[in-house]
Amino acid sequence: MIWASKSGLARRAAAGLAAIMFTGTAIAGPVIIRATGPSAKAYPAGRQLSDNAQLALKGGDTLVLLDSRGTRTLSGPGTFPAVATGMRAGTAQTAARILANTGTSERRGGAVRGGAPTAVETRSPNLWLVDLTKSGTVCIADPNAVHVWRSSTGKAEDVKVSSASASGTIPMAAGASMGDWPKSVPVTDGAEYTITMEGMAPARIKMMTVPAPASLEDTASQLIAKGCKTQLDLLVASTQGNGPTG
């Protein structure tokens, strides 16, 4: 597959982030993503732990942590260090891709027989792409360069976007999964928008602007603080897998 990006700055940022994550620099303390069980109140989501913290969990406790090594799940009872050794293979590259590639980009496969559209991933390839099918709060790093994503690419469609004071369309060609937010509908912090696609219930989203993140921990903290659940779920899903668990 070919990954094409318009943003040279984003590519340099991605390379820089990956380089930092592969060096021997001390790991910052992880951010708590989720906590359930009897000790949940002691570990609120969004709290950043010190890198030498010891976590005392009771039976029934589950704690999900995220730092530059990836996502880690702890299950009680027991006492666990906040930072574990080891890194999930590909975490740095994945983080660099989903955090820094803010320009419009498209995944394209090989030749297609019979004119059938190329299949695309069912999970957004980038944290800052607005999922056209999901309602909720969406965090954006640059309100002047907002890009969108859809998982179903079988047909061409003009996606309708409206706010309290403006409306516009996003033309999506058959086979295309990404597009540009219409310039006729300005994006402002805290504003709400309705997205209408054929055959689907309208999606209602609220845009929240955040500073360009410097790390996985910083990104997770901002997403939690702003209530951007869909993006937080994507961040966790993209950095979990074969990492250490407790």
Describe the 3D structure.
- By secondary structure, the protein is α+β, with helices and mostly antiparallel strands.
- It has helices at 8-22, 91-100, 216-226, 229-239; strands at residues 2-5, 31-36, 54-57, 62-67, 70-75, 78-81, 105-108, 129-131, 136-140, 147-149, 157-162, 167-172, 178-180, 192-196, 203-209.
Derived structural class: alpha+beta
Q: What's the end-to-end separation, in Å?
A: 36 Å
Mean pLDDT: 78
The gross shape turns out to be elongated
Total DSSP E strands: 15
Task: Write the H/E string, N to C.
Answer: EHEEEEEHEEEEEEEEEHH
Share in helix: 10-25%
Strand order of the largest sheet: 9-15-14-11-12
Largest sheet: 5 strands, mixed
Number of helices: 4
In terms of per-residue confidence, which ranges show pLDDT below 50 for 5 or more consecutive residues? Answer: 1-27, 102-120
- Beta-strand level of the residues, as a percent range? 25-35%
* CA-atom Rg in angstroms: 19 Å
Relevant terms:
single chain; 246 residues; alpha+beta; 5-stranded mixed beta sheet; 3-stranded antiparallel beta sheet; 4 helices; 15 strands; 29% strand; elongated; disordered N terminus
Compact overview of the structure:
This protein has helices at 8-22, 91-100, 216-226, 229-239; strands at residues 2-5, 31-36, 54-57, 62-67, 70-75, 78-81, 105-108, 129-131, 136-140, 147-149, 157-162, 167-172, 178-180, 192-196, 203-209. With 246 residues, the chain is of the alpha+beta class.
